[in-house]
Predict the 3D structure of the following.
Amino acid sequence: MIGYLLRRVGGAVLVLFGLSVIVYALFYLAPRDPAVLTCGKGCTPERLAQVHAAMGLDESPVAQYGHFLQGLVAGRDYPAGPDVRHCPAPCLGYSFETDQPVTKLLADRLPVSASLAVGAEILSLAIGVGAGLLSGLRRFRVLDRIVNGLVLAGYAVPVFLVGLFLLLLFCVRLQWLPFPQYVPLTTDPLAWAQNLLLPWIALAVIQSAAYARLTRAGVQQALAEDYVRTARAYGLPERRIVRTRALRGALVPLVTLTAIDLAAIMASAVLTETMFGLPGVGQLLVGAVNQIDLPVVVGVTLLTGFLVVVANAVADLLYAAIDPRVQLR
């Protein structure tokens, strides 16, 4: 187990290193100079040279990347006029646009994205597993066909169209809910859930379709196994067979998909956060890309990459815990 964990950590470090290299390479292929954007209109060549030096852009790309790696493991010093300010490890640098530490920007936005991802994932699992279980137990019947139709619709409808429909129906037409705005969970739990309900539903439409299809296939496969027929022959109640045999067999692939999806939602909820005006990590990334704010782009990329890698490792461990036949190598 220890060897397996060490291999996973080593692989994660390599993946994150590759991600940071790719982001830096893409940054230097961009046609615009971030120092020009920071300097603003009427910028003189002398002032532009000062901004270049302050942002560290007067060094070679390799030297800049070396300083970035140094900041991650040992911290980094930045010139601030006549003084020097120290950024402790793990240092992701300071935003070109706001001059704030990237770690602070991420820490401020992460609770919003985490609230969105966790709530949407719980709702997706409740709807998807329930629908998939009913569909699998009623194979080729009317309920099965209805669920299959809804699953296909869930796959086909884009998230922004679902979000727009929900806003028009519940916020404009019926006025049952306010326009979403993030309220911290610790401030008012009821307002937190009320404002995030529509974004959760918008994301759950697509996610629950995937879970329903996977659960249906898993239940049908498990019910066709010999051990299920043997359990029925011994007279075990059907409800117990479904709970202890069929549903457990369907859980194994679900665990893997759930752990990966939870990280993927945080990484890809840009459309949802933008549509509902939620100040999460995705919205931060959109603004940073528009402003060519390299430290923020790299910080968000590494954070989302880290979450995906950790989710994969957790999924593998849970997979082995649920199914004893799976052996860690």
In short: The chain has a mean pLDDT of 81. Residues 102-137 form the longest helix (36 residues).
